[in-house]
Amino acid sequence: MPIKFPFSRRGAPTDAWTKCPTCDAQVFNKQLERNQRLCPSCGHHFRMSVGERIDLLLDRGSFEERDAGLEAVDRLGFHDDRPYTDRLEASQIKTGLRDAVVSGTGAIDGQRVAIAIFDFRFMGGSMGSVVGEKLARCFETALAERIPAIVVSASGGARMQEGTLALMQLAKTTAPLVRLDAAGVPFIAVLTDPTTGGVLASFASLGDVIVAEPKALIGFAGARVASDTVGEEMPEGFQSAEFLLAHGFVDVVVPRPELRSSLSRLLRLLPVAAIDDGHQLRHERAWGPIGALTGLAERLGGAVSETIGIDVEAPADGNGKSASTTATTEREDAR
Amino acid sequence: MSDMPMLERADTPSPAASEEAWRRVQLARHPQRPRTLDLVAVIFDGFFELHGDRAFGDDPAVVGGPATLDGVPVMVIGHQKGTDTESNILRNFGSPHPEGFRKAQRIMRLADKLGMPIVTFLDTAGAFPGPAAEERGQAEAIASSIKLMTGLQVPIVVVVLGEGGSGGALALGVGDIVLALENAVYSVISPEGCASILWRSRDEARTAAAAMRMTANDQVDLGVVDAIVVEPGDGAHTNHAQTGRALKAAIISAMRRLSGRETTELLATRYARLRSMGAYLETGAGSPRRPAVPSLRRRIGRILHLPGVPRRPRWSEIWPSNDLDDESERGA
Predict the structure, then answer these.
(1) I need a surface site. Which of A235, B191, B266, B321 has the fewest CB within 10 A?
(2) Would an 8 Å CB–CB cutoff place A309 in contact with chain B?
(3) Are B304 and B176 within one domain?
(4) Residues 49-88 of A with CB under 8 A from B
(5) Backbone angles phi, psi at A31, to 5 degrees
(6) Which three-class secondary structure state does DSSP give residue A159?
């Protein structure tokens, strides 16, 4: 898949003005860029590109991109009115990104974080295999380096063109969070407009702290899908950041000018757990073996190894504990 | 990327492929297809249904509780569709509200506590998308179910019975071994939903069904499903008992494979299975950054090292918001 760029942007006429969807004001694009993409008259939060997000949130010069070489493949051979590969290429040319997420490490007021940022312009920020893999690796970086993880989401959900492989990214991005819990590493989810579908139904709802931007559309089912299925109109303000705040699914709604300082404060207040004895124990407990399973093997019969050719480890004592399992004892003690 | 083999260019599914995919979808949705409770009665003994999420209510679209499998205590959880209009209304056509997923979580925690293996049955068009479900955190309920299942310290066998509909199915569908009935389907979005978004017409559902490759065979090919359980005759609806017996044998065999594993290994293997899901290329190259054209002042400033002109471009110059918001691309 060759990536073609236009030689220059000067040839392409770009709109100099954008109409604010909230107050209908005509806003000069240059002004938007200078004003954190906020409407100068009503404060409407326009969507940001991943580059603008990095500049907004991270210390100057601190961002180091990782896994930039990951690129989507069309595993399904998906073709609607045009092939998936064409859509990918068009988005790559439009955005200068390989896929809908940029990830890496950076610092907020000197506090190092593993961070992943969605760009909605790339196929609606949809989560396919590349997005899922980058997020999983981002969480694994946080785990390995014991630094907090931050994900800034802006996504319509799972990428339909990748079928169930996209659906499985919900599990792929969620699984590492269990390890972060065990290791005592915090994860902050920042939900921006829009965060819906499979992205909200996975890691984005699972932040230790969940921060949202004002008026961001945040919801499980698209309003159209919902009214199609349910046959009723959705109430006003339903699926907004404020709606989720009122119902207890978001910790705080933070206007963009305060987003960076809020994250900085949170990082200071929620340090990565120190590795002490107590924590070590929790970690081992979470991953330690359990006697009951060996017991299950016995109960399901000795024919196990013959049937499927897997060696069943003989229990070291009568209680179904195997020999090398100190953690088993700890787990049982903890109960 | 020039060393990449040229792939055959994808094309819209042929009418024959669409018909075949649609036939499977129809079988998966067949009104006489055995439901979770029908099969539980054949496969397990002494199923004792538990009710309620201990927070809000009891969702009849999800059923669960302890039972024995060949004498071994296990926990059984599944979506439950109805068999006629009345029971379908009661069961909300098998589409759970958040309390359904939270009931499942509560039962899974009990299984974890007691070291009981879990068997789940997937049969839902999807999680219910109504305003009440949103209000009570449908997305959070699905997300936390997925998270819980990835960390449970007991073996999990998942069976796709009929429709494996998106996040609502995956919320009960994270396991160590995933089985599917021959005519089951599994998809990221319903074919109707996919068609209305990508083809802008629900009438293209057949085409969308084929394009998403949602049949059980396709899912084995994609690595999402591990093994297929053959259905009797013209489909599971023709013989519930025989379907149940075939499933029972498959579930026992899957459990035997898992029962010898220690928890550390079990969890590591489950993690590796989830981590391996998906298809992508990894090149050595960096992001194909758009060549930004800096202002004349910056270009001159950089050459002359003028004060106030940064030596390196800012990220927003590399990846600017160069377009108006584009609503044409949507996800599920």
Answers:
(1) A235
(2) no
(3) no
(4) 49-52, 54-55, 61, 63, 65, 67-81, 83-85, 87
(5) -65, -40
(6) coil
Q: Does the residue B216 lie in any domain?
A: yes
Q: β-pairing, B177-181 with B185-187?
A: unpaired
Q: Are residues B50 and B172 in the same domain?
A: yes
**Residue range A207-234: mean pLDDT, rounded:** 83
B172 in the same domain as B97: yes
| pLDDT digits 0-9 by tens, A90-134 | 999 889 999 999 999 999 999 999 999 999 999 999 999 999 999
If one counts the domains in chain B, the total is 2
End-to-end CA distance of chain B: 30
C-alpha to C-alpha distance for B137 and A200, rounded to whole angstroms: 10
Exposed (0-12), middle (13-18) or buried (19+): which is B30, by Cβ within 10 Å? middle
**What would you report as the CA-atom Rg of chain B, rounded to the nearest whole angstrom?**
24
Do B319 and A102 form a contact (C-beta atoms < 8 A)? yes
Enter the tokens of residue A95.
Answer: 């955005």
Closest among A307, A255, A186 to A43, alpha carbons compared: A255
Residues 6+ apart with CB under 8 A from B229: B159, B179, B180, B181, B182, B246, B247, B250
Mean pLDDT, rounded, for B100-119 = 97
Which residue does chain A place closest to B281, by CA atoms?
Answer: A71
How far is residue B320's CA from residue A56's CA, in Å, rounded to a whole number?
A: 12
Q: How many CB atoms lie within 10 A of CB B15?
A: 11
Would you state the structure tokens that stand for residue A39, as one six-digit string?
């409407």
B63 Cβ contact list (under 8 Å, min separation 6): B36, B37, B40, B49, B77, B78, B80
Q: Specify the range with the lowest mean pLDDT, choosing from A329-333, B38-42, B236-240.
A: A329-333
d(CA B144, CA A204): 11
Confidence of residue B292 (pLDDT cuts 50, 70, 90): low
Assigned domain for B66 exists:
yes
Residue B173 and residue B160 in contact, taking contact as beta carbons nearer than 8 Å: yes
Are B239 and B296 in the same domain? Answer: no
pLDDT at B8: 52
Distance of CA A100 to the CA centre of its chain: 11
**Omega before residue A194 within 30° of 0, cis:** yes
- Are B198 and B309 part of one and the same domain? no
In this prediction, residue B306 carries a pLDDT of 79
How far is Cα A211 from Cα A255, in angstroms, rounded to an integer?
10
Asked whether residue B4 is assigned to any structural domain, the reply reads no
Chain A 215-244, residues with CB within 8 Å of chain B CB atoms: 219-222, 225-226, 228-230, 232, 234-235, 238-239, 243
Residue B323 has pLDDT above 60, yes or no: no
Average pLDDT value for residue range A284-311:
44
| Residue B37 forms part of a structural domain | yes
A47-269 classified as CATH 3.90.226.10: yes
- From residue A329, alpha-carbon distances to A155, A324, B287 in Å are 45, 11, 49
**Alpha-helical segments (H) within A241-324:** 241-246, 259-269, 277-287, 291-299, 304-308
Q: How large is the ipTM?
A: 0.91
Domain ranges of chain A: 1-46, 47-269, 288-334
- Tell me the CA end-to-end span of chain A in Å, nearest whole number: 55
Diameter over CA atoms, chain B: 83
pLDDT band at B243 (very low <50, low <70, confident <90, very high): very high
From the centroid of its chain, how far is CA B202? 22
The whole-chain average pLDDT of chain A stands at: 82
Give dist(CA A291, CA A312) in Å, integer.
Answer: 13
Which of A49, A120, A160 to substitute to test the interface with B, most B CBs within 10 Å?
Answer: A160
Average pLDDT over residues B202-223: 95
